[in-house]
Amino acid sequence: MIYFVGALVLAYFIGAIPTGYILGKLIKGIDIREHGSGNVGATNVFRTMGKIPGLVVFIVDFLKGLIVVTLLPFCLIRFFSAPVVFAYSSTYLLLGISAILGHIWTIFLKFKGGKGVATTAGVIAGQSPVIFAVCFVIWITIFLVWRYVSLASIAAAISLPFFAVLSGNSLEFKIFCAIIALLAVYSHRTNIKRLIQGNEKKLGQKNQR
Questions:
Q1: Contact present, 21 and 31 (Cβ < 8 Å)
Q2: How far apart are CA 98 and CA 69, in angstroms?
Q3: Continuous segment of H or E residues that includes residue 112
Q4: What are the two backbone dihedrals, phi and then psi, of residue 205, each rounded to the nearest 5 degrees?
Q5: How far from the centroid of its chain's Cα atoms is residue 47's Cα?
Q6: Which region among 13-22, 67-76, 77-86, 175-184 has the lowest average model confidence (pLDDT)?
Q7: In this predicted model, what pLDDT tens digit does every residue of 15-24 receive, in sequence order?
Q8: In angstroms, rounded to a whole number, what is the distance separating the alpha carbons of residues 61 and 90?
Q9: For residue 77, what pLDDT is reported?
Q10: Strand, coil or helix: 203
Q11: Phi/psi of residue 24, nearest 5 degrees
């Protein structure tokens, strides 16, 4: 149990690393929360600081999710002899959720983080590469057609539970995907409102809060 609780806490802190905030301070000496949409995620960094910083933030945030469901359990099993705790797929899924929650509600920025898209993508890639690939295709397709990052992210997230059911994954994974979809909708609630009102900005347009 101590390994499990410790792993959940560690996963949260890994997910909570505010990549966009740190990069903003290091590269331009700015608080990314005071620019653009005020979000610390890759999209706002892309719009505020440029393509390369935005891509770096996405990759790092993606790796946060991937690491907590692959490298973290491996290290605990390898170096701390905790194989029993990590014999269940639900353990990995809880680690993934912990990292995503850490990203969305990071303790390092008064519990106001990003929207969890990149970190969620990393978790899904580590747990089901096939579903990740399908959802990525959905994301790319919707983004290329409408140019809304938020719409593409919401659609990809909502499709997760359906593909989890179609692929015949475990009940735990299906529940996990449903939770992820709900988290995505919740974290994008202001974007959904702007999409309905026709005020959402496409990538490349001047950002807004």
A1: yes
A2: 10
A3: none
A4: -90, 160
A5: 18
A6: 77-86
A7: 999 999 999 9
A8: 22
A9: 79
A10: strand
A11: -60, -40
Residue 67: count other Cβ atoms within 10 Å of its Cβ. Answer: 21
CA distance 190 to 48: 19
Closest CA to 151 of 100, 115, 200: 200
Residue spans of alpha helices (H) in 50-188: 51-69, 71-80, 89-104, 117-127, 129-146, 149-166, 171-187
Query: What pairs with residue 123 in β-bridges?
Result: none
In total, the chain counts a number of residues equal to 209
- Joined tokens for residue 154: 């919401």
**CA angle 200–132–12, rounded 5-degree value:** 80
Burial of 30 (0-12, 13-18, 19+ CB in 10 A): middle
Q: Which residue type sits at 150?
A: S
pTM: 0.93
Q: Considering only CA atoms, which of 190, 186, 189 is closest in space to residue 207?
A: 190
Query: Per-residue pLDDT for 104 more than 60?
Result: yes
Q: Is the dihedral of CA 153, 158, 161, 162 positive or negative?
A: negative
- Position 80 pLDDT exceeds 80: no
